[in-house]
Amino acid sequence: MPDTARISDNIQKILAPGKGILAADESTGTIQKRFDSINVENTEENRIAYRNMLFTTGGYEEFISGVILFDETIDQKGESGQTFSEMIAASGVVPGIKNDEGKEEHPNFGSQTITRGLKGLGKRLENWTERSNGTLGFTKWRQVVLVEPEPNAAFLDYAMSVMAEQAAWVIDAGYVPICEPEILMDGSHTQDQCASVTERTLSTLYKKFEEQGVDPALTILKTNMVLSGKETKKDTPEEVAGPTVQTFQNSVPASMPGVVFLSGGQSSIQSTENLNACAKVATSAPWVLSFSYGRALQEDALKAWGGSKDNYGAGQSAFLHRAKMNGLAQKEEYEGE
Questions:
Q1: Per-residue pLDDT tens for 42-75?
Q2: Which terminus of the chain is more exposed, N or C, with fewer CB under 10 A?
Q3: What letter would DSSP give residue 223?
Q4: Which residues contact 252 (CB under 8 A, 6 or more apart)?
Q5: Element holding 72 (H helix, E strand)
Q6: Residue 148 per-residue DSSP state
């Protein structure tokens, strides 16, 4: 039997008021792009140094409730000699793990890709439990969905069935599954098109949950805001909030405890402003709205750090400021920088 008490306890910690998730689960290839932007070589030593800077930021636990890690990061050690997963847990923050294995093309779905990682997932969960000394509390599985061309029913049925199955494995292992269907903001689609695809995707996901016996109350949803394609226009926070919350009300079960937004290519400040606007509209919603940002939490810190230990303090200040601004936005209290 899954440890539902542990799962529920971790959900409460992750969705604590004024806090959100730091997505630090960049694969080696993704962090290469981050480091290239500041002319830093992508070595294991530099990856450890950068993440050590983030995870030793004094006071970050006031605004960050969870940290998503990549496989190699779990048992890497910071300067204290503790592994990163142990270090994060010791600060009162819940560490988690990216549990999918990336995406690949499917012969029947054109430009839509399918996320892989079901094979051997049970064994990988056991391995992560052992390597983290039981400190990990959640997983995160991402499935990308393009608005154009619009996904057909067969693709959504298949992709969301896979997402529901991995959630069943994760719950059985005693972890919170954070399910991330990301409708990409790339392209020239309208906001209405994004709303339609988001609603269809989420409705299909929770239908698959029901079919596979996955209790939404033991999961967290990570997904996009309803946005126009970035080649079309930049929506104002007020334009984003209403359609986003309405889409969730149309498709997300009331028993699902929380939605954590991904930033999805929005700027740091844009992500904060839009979160604040959505929180204001969702005051009577049955689920918590919060954030699970990667680049939008890290971009300023990465630039301030620049690959030098001499800049640790500057990088940590930038990270703490961004985390605080999003913590305020989660409580509808953001009033600008």
A1: 999 999 999 999 999 999 999 999 999 999 999 9
A2: N
A3: E
A4: 202, 206, 221, 259, 287
A5: none
A6: S
